[in-house]
Design goal:
- The structure holds two protein chains of two kinds.
- Chain A contains ten helices and ten strands.
- By secondary structure, chain A is an alpha/beta fold.
- The longest helix of chain A is centred in the middle third of the chain and has 20 residues.
- The model of chain A has no long low-confidence stretch (mean pLDDT 90).
- Chain B is mainly alpha-helical.
- Chain B has a two-stranded antiparallel ribbon.
- The longest helix of chain B is centred in the first third of the chain and has 27 residues.
- Chain B starts with a helix and ends with a helix.
- Classes of the chains: A alpha/beta, B mainly alpha.
- At the A-B interface, α2, α3, α4 and α5 of A face α7, α8, α9, α10 and α15 of B.
């Protein structure tokens, strides 16, 4: 059974068909890319899966759960982590607090415990903080633990964001243009990081990216979107030589 | 040292506020001001939870205060005194000492339930919606009470003075200041715990980026409703205390002017700073009283002072920092909950 199954997904922004008949199956521990020119509807697909938009048609199932009509926080606590195109860390909270708050769905204590500082709260908070620290240690982020994210270098912010997406023990993480705004050196590090995350945490990674170097290097399977519809699907090698993809990116030759 | 800092502070303020009033060193007027300061602290701290930590904009805090004020004073007057509104007392006067705190809590709960009615539709969307709704609530509350003739309507409601006198007759003790003090400590305690726990800190995350919070598994709508109810419940308790302090209430005591006072105190103290709220509530209340001789010119001088303060310190007295961040030397005596938690982990 596939982990995530998207069938016949269609979504309209007003009269504009932003996603048209999108199909996808993700199985465990895969690394799948989603590419396409600007405005092709890639981020919209992510937002549909996360429940930020409601699709006009189609179905999304994750491990047998129907995701249509659920709130975003319910969907993500089922085990879907996500990062954003423009980094969306909470800039007024320290790095460790960023990770702690992502534990929200795993908190056992009740509201009254948090009001009266009971021993259950202390135990749970310690557990949550310990998990956050362990995760930060794996990502070599311990030196930045009490910093505010906005004071960190860009590459580190990306790393914190990926780290935060892994807090809820996801089975899938969606990376939305993780290499945006990075230089070559940072991109090399990111490629290593994504591979390492896939092996270390045994997650499926679904990635949107414009940097062909990243996509061609790490993805096992690529799907190409243009104006909302899928125009090609296959291994990096196939995509590289697909005439339709070249046309979507570079346009047609004038004869 | 650290563990005893807070209890010592509470003990000292207890001694300063209550013992002199008990021994009769403070005149009635000063006792009235002390109670008023306490009430303003509760209101400011609770509104800070919505406007400061959560980043929503509620302008109708006085309405929730009014709900608490009316429900608790209606109850005490109905149960304990012979009044022109409800006739004979139901319970003997001697029970006043016991009944009074219970009615305060009931007032708080009523206000919290009332706020739930407002919170459910308001938090479906984000933005200035809550400001408009709470403004409307202020008007609705005033017109609703004005049109219920059984509880005085626009003429107001009284009789709480008899309850206070009954309590004083039984055991001579500044009961009102005592209960105000208890509620102040209680509100600061629970709000401080709340905003330091992961659950409560998530409201700061909502202020920062609501979509990111929702996608990071935070149940934003539930959390916003809970924080709003908590805040309004505390305002209701403050209302109950206020009604028994002034012993005469009418609908316009809990109208836009009162809401504005609370807002001013929150912004004066600093958004998202509990110690700032406490300081600004004390300073602002005393300032208003000191300027009383100026009569009408009070309303010229006070806004002027506020404008000057905002020009030089646009983020309020404390900004979004706490007292401990401003005076790190005090950390010897007080430890924040956050610190206590993270220390425990780093050591392990």
């Amino acid at each position: 059974m596939p982990l995530l199954k998207v069938e016949k997904l269609t979504h309209f922004f007003g009269g504009l068909r932003s996603v048209d008949d999108f199909n996808l199956e993700l199985s465990e521990n895969e690394l799948v890319g989603l590419i396409g020119p600007n405005g092709a509807g890639k981020s919209t697909v992510f937002n549909l899966v996360c429940g930020l938009y409601r699709p006009t048609q189609g179905s999304i199932t994750f491990e047998g759960h129907d995701l249509i009509g659920r709130f975003p926080h319910q969907i993500t606590s089922l085990g879907i982590g996500r990062t954003f195109q423009n980094i969306r860390l909470w800039n007024e909270l320290s790095v460790i607090d960023n990770l702690r708050i992502a534990h929200f769905s795993q908190i056992d204590y009740k509201l009254l415990d948090s009001l009266f500082f009971t021993s259950r709260l202390v135990k749970d908070e310690q557990k949550v903080s310990q998990e956050a620290i362990d995760l930060l240690e794996k990502f070599n982020l311990i030196p930045y633990i009490n910093e505010l994210p906005r004071n960190l270098p860009y590459g580190i912010q990306r790393r914190v964001e990926i780290c935060r997406a892994l807090v809820m023990n996801p089975k899938i993480i969606l990376l939305d243009e993780p290499a945006a705004g990075m230089n070559q050196g940072e991109i090399d590090e990111l490629i290593k990081l994504v591979r390492w995350v896939k092996d270390e945490f045994k997650v499926t990674i679904w990635i949107i990216e414009h940097q062909m170097r990243v996509i061609m290097n790490i993805c096992e399977r690529i799907q190409v979107l243009d104006f909302g519809s899928t125009i090609a699907e296959g291994t990096p090698e196939e995509i590289r030589n697909n005439p339709q993809v070249i046309k979507a990116y570079l346009g047609e030759e004038v004869t | 040292m650290k563990r005893f800092g807070m209890p010592t502070l509470i003990g000292i303020s207890f001694l300063i506020c209550i013992v002199p009033s008990w021994l009769g060193w403070f005149s009635n007027y000063i006792q009235f001001i002390i109670a008023l300061i306490g009430i303003n602290i509760i209101l400011t701290v609770s509104l800070n939870l919505i406007n400061g930590y959560m980043g929503e904009f509620s302008v109708g805090h006085a309405a929730f205060m009014g709900v608490g004020a009316y429900s608790s004073s209606l109850l005490t007057v109905y149960l304990l005194t012979d009044s022109s509104f409800f006739g004979k007392a139901i319970l003997p006067e001697e029970l006043a000492i016991l009944i009074f705190p219970i009615t305060l809590i009931i007032g708080g709960i009523t206000a919290a339930l009332f706020s739930l009615l407002i919170a459910i539709p308001s938090f479906k969307t984000r933005g200035d919606y809550l400001a408009i709704v709470t403004l409307a609530v202020n008007f609705i509350f005033k017109s609703a009470i004005e049109n219920i003739d059984a509880i005085g309507g626009p003429r107001g409601f009284m009789g709480m003075g008899k309850v206070m006198k009954a309590m004083d007759n039984l055991v001579s003790f500044p009961w009102l200041i005592f209960w105000t003090f208890v509620v102040v400590v209680f509100s600061i305690y629970i709000i401080r715990n709340f905003v330091n726990s992961t659950m409560g800190k998530s409201i700061v995350a909502i202020r920062d980026d609501e979509i990111a919070s929702e996608l990071m598994t935070v149940n934003t709508r539930w959390l916003k409703i809970v924080a709003f109810m908590l805040s309004c419940g505390l305002a209701g308790m403050a209302g109950g205390l206020h009604a028994h302090t002034v012993t005469f209430i009418n609908p316009s005591s809990y109208f836009i002017l009162q809401s504005t006072y609370i807002l001013v105190m929150v912004y004066l103290g600093g958004m998202g700073s509990l110690s700032g709220s406490v300081i600004s509530a004390i300073v602002f209340t005393i300032l208003l009283e000191l300027l009383k001789p100026l009569d009408v010119f009070r309303w010229v001088v006070t806004p002027l002072l506020l404008i000057i303060l905002m020009l030089f310190r646009p983020t309020g007295i404390m900004g979004n920092r706490e007292l401990l961040d401003v005076f790190p030397t005090l950390k010897k005596y007080f430890s924040s909950l956050q610190e206590r938690l993270s220390n425990a982990i780093i050591k392990s």
